[in-house]
Amino acid sequence: MKVLHISTECYPAAKAGGMGDVVGALPLYLPEQGVEASVVIPKYANAWMADQSFETVFEASFDMAEEHIIFRIQRLKKKKLGFPFYVVDIPGKFDRAQVYLANDGEGYRDEVQRNISFQRSVVNWLLSDQHGFDILHCHDHMTGLIPFILQHCPAASSLKDLPVFFTIHNGQYRGVMPWSNARFLPEYDGRKAGILDWDGAINCLAAALKCVDRASTVSPSYMKELQSDFDTLTSLARAISNKSIGILNGIDSKVWDPKKDPMLYQLLKRSPAVFKTANKKSLAADHGFRHTKCLVSFIGRFAYEKGADLLPGAIRRYLKGDNSMQFFILGSGDRSIEEAVLQLQKDFPDNVVSVIAYNEALAHRIYAASDFILMPSRFEPCGLNQMYAMRYGTVPVVRHTGGLIDTVPDIGNDGNGISFLRASEEDIIYSLGRIRELYGDAGEMKLLISKIMSIDNSWTLSAKKYADEYQKTIKEKR
Predict the structure, then answer these.
(1) For site-directed labelling of 113, which of 85, 93, 320, 433 has its Cα 20 to 30 A away?
(2) From CA 425, how far away is CA 393, in angstroms rounded?
(3) Could you tell me which CATH number the domain at 272-453 has?
(4) Could you tell me whether strands 244-246 and 395-399 are parallel, antiparallel, or unpaired per DSSP bridges?
(5) Residue 56 to residue 396: CA distance in whole angstroms
(6) Architecture of 2-250+460-477 per CATH?
(7) What is the pTM of this model?
């Protein structure tokens, strides 16, 4: 069975969030299940792409409203990623360093044209009949028009019977755009325009859910959440429940391996305690902590959905009454949050380090050094940070939502970490109190660290579920 993953991210080629990790890792584990997985993403002008050697396997052009789009499908010459990897080179559209955001921190003004040109280019390549794929796996709204194009655009009618699997990584992003943008689509059956529509606008996510053969989310609990409260899309999520499934993400245990990770100061040998202590001392020395205490960290985007706006106030209030903890904050995003966490470091230099950046190597070091990782997410479709953290012996402290429900049951219920109900400063502060209590019990901490480091969150089990669902989807399509 051959599957093509169509995405706008794939680690390490291009990553802005968890989707990049998923698309870069899942194809590595599918061959064990009898599935040959390939990946295609846009060709960005980033450092990774510049260092690679590609060969052109297909080139063509098409008209998109007033533009004539010329594109090339290129294949990575060496199997550096462990699977066939393709990029779509569209001059003027994706030859930019960042995946989604311009230099001003805002989304690209031509996002609609970029996404549609990418999807149409992939479809044109598929129409060339050079591929032999048995099923397509589309990821998030940026590829959400492909199922519609295959079903309802005459030029793509020969692909109508090609099964399409679609994964929602984050349902808050839906590709909503005014109907004036319909001119960028290939000619379609006007009687089917309603499939594109939701609430009076083109909605790429909604269109995908209506057209695909199978839809998935990245955790079982997130699927339940969408079917109970997906605001205006709740009814649609419920209507397609018969073709929906939640499959929990895994992590690439080869990249996230405390015994072999080249980014760490100290590798794990036999003693988790020695491993944690050495990495904590190294991180503290490099970032200005004069001594080490219980270390609580946050790694991620400074965004509302991540609850990052709650951190400065909660940490400030806690440290005013108790300075027995240290906090390491790594991330970037909302400028007001960036300013607030930097001010926090100025006000509490012995207790807070704030680094405004996306830094993969530093993230690995933080996971290895920290005692606890804090994830106060308002919503979290799956979450990978808590799995990375547990792999490195760091206890997750999470809000009870989405995939965090599935992966971090509370220690009060013989679970893996600390869970709290509300995304609020009060609940975070209360959880910090629980952290202090747990950290003070050396025996309990040792047992918990041993437990969470032994959990298998690799892709093996999830890859089997995807392979089974691919097989079902193909069978039902026939």
Answers:
(1) 85
(2) 26
(3) 3.40.50.2000
(4) unpaired
(5) 45
(6) 3-Layer(aba) Sandwich (3.40)
(7) 0.91
